[in-house]
Amino acid sequence: MAAPPVGAQAKWQSRRRRPGMLAVAVACIAACAVGNYWYWTQNGQRQPVLELARDVPAGSVIKDGDLREASVALDPSMKVIGVQQRDDVVGMRAVSTLPSGALLHPRQVTRKTLVNAGEQLVGIALKPGQLPDSALRPGDTVQVVFTSEDPSADTAKNANGPESVQARVVRVGATRESTGERVVDVAVGKAQGPQLAAQAAGGDVALAVNGAGD
Which of 15, 71, 137, 200 is deepest in the core (most CB within 10 A)? Predict the structure, then answer.
């Protein structure tokens, strides 16, 4: 049997190699498409948003140093606060405890004082022994006990007034390293606010935490 012409043999071999080359080309195109999609999702949709630079306790006023800028890829349904709103956020209060590294959500901040109608906010500076060692949290219900023993003082407890008032914890300040003291902001009824403030100014108070359901 005669061998096929040299030109025809080369043409047949070239056609034989084509399917393999086509498969390689398709694979390269697919890899490029996946790479471009990954880069687009990771970089093309990144937005500058606000992130917590440190823990912010519930009820605390947010300071500029509490915030930092982060660039993240976001799902369109995710609502966060952009860096352009930084000046608006500074001075607002944290509705709940905000952990460092978390993105800031609009519902996590408020301009309200977190005190309800008919209440007053009173700050109480407490030393170790004037409050439980267990952690206090915003929303805890406590009894603020008047500890003054001077019956002649205007702020002392007497037969016509309560020896304690019920309050709701709004904010728990950080412990001061020098004294071990910490300030706890509590919300009380307007009728008890002035008396509690006077007792607290003299340091004649202590906190008792109510149990769940009390």
Answer: 200
Return the SS3 of 68: strand
Which string of DSSP letters, residue by residue, matches 55-70?
Answer: -B-TTPBPPGGGEEEE
Is CATH 2.40.30 correct for 119-209?
yes
- Distance in angstroms between the alpha carbons of the first and the last residue of the chain: 106
Q: Which residue has tokens 């608006």? A: 88
- The pLDDT tens digits for 131-141 are 888 888 888 89
User: What band does 144 get if pLDDT is binned at 50, 70 and 90?
Assistant: very high
Domain 46-110 = CATH 3.40.50.2000: no
Write the burial class of residue 145 (CB in 10 Å: 0-12 exposed, 13-18 middle, 19+ buried): middle
